[in-house]
């Protein structure tokens, strides 16, 4: 079986990839002994990688770069890239430093919809800018 962790590491090493996501309903995952690796699904007929992308690059180019980065790890199988989230590039120093991964989550792995928000600059955010969620 192909090493899903090596595929995840290669995808995370591509400039422009902010993290891995579980995709819709957490369905993009590989089950390893004692853990679930979200963001990479290795199947007999294809490999699916679900990412959060950093803003500033053409998304098709980013997807191609991820495919190239994992090509030597997946054999002849096609690689399908899902871009499930877009993360705005923040000026240096505005991203929280050293947010530890949640228990059971490898570093760099972002569960669907859960991006770190502590210490983000909010000085220009007004309460009126927020939508109330019913």
TrEMBL record:
Residues 92-104 have a biased composition (Low complexity). Residues 92-115 are annotated as: Disordered. It comes from the Bacteria. This is Asp23/Gls24 family envelope stress response protein.
